Amino acid sequence: MAHRDFKKEDFVKDLSGEYQLEFQEGNIGEGSDLIIERKNENGDYEVVQAEIKRHDQLIFISWSEPFDGRVLFDE
């Protein structure tokens, strides 16, 4: 599986108080299964069940707080 790393600074707070990441659909696969992993203090990754929405060729990942992590996807 391919992945794309992100940093907590990449998150933007939305009107509802959630933090969101935005990706272009073509950058992380179209219609593929996405897995969101959060990096912990040890540098290991753990799977989280973040909310994922798609709209107009964009993919939004929402979480209650920003974190360092990665998105896993099929190429």
Write the layout of secondary structure elements.
Layout: E1 2-6, E2 12-13, E3 19-24, E4 35-39, E5 45-48, E6 51-55, E7 58-63, E8 69-73
Antiparallel strand pairs: 1-8, 2-3, 3-7, 4-5, 4-8, 6-7
Describe this structure in words.
This is Glutathione synthase. By secondary structure, the protein is mainly beta. The chain is 0% helix and 51% strand. It has one domain (2-73). It is globular. The model has no long low-confidence stretch (mean pLDDT 90).
Task: Write a concise keyword list for the protein shown above.
75 residues, mainly beta, four-stranded antiparallel beta sheet, 51% strand
With strands numbered from the N-terminus, the spatial order across the biggest sheet is 1-8-4-5
Number of discrete domains: 1
Which spans have pLDDT < 50 for at least 5 consecutive residues? none
**Mean model confidence by pLDDT:** 90
> How large, in whole angstroms, is the Cα Rg?
12 Å
Helix share, percent: under 10%
Shape designation: globular
Terminal-residue CA separation: 7 Å
Proportion of beta-strand residues: over 45%
Structural class: mainly beta
Q: What is the number of strand segments?
A: 8
Spell out the helices and strands N to C: EEEEEEEE
Number of helical segments with 4 or more residues: 0
Summarize the main sheet.
4 strands, antiparallel
Q: In short, what is this structure?
A:
With 75 residues, the chain is mainly beta. The protein has no helices and eight strands. It is 0% helix and 51% strand.
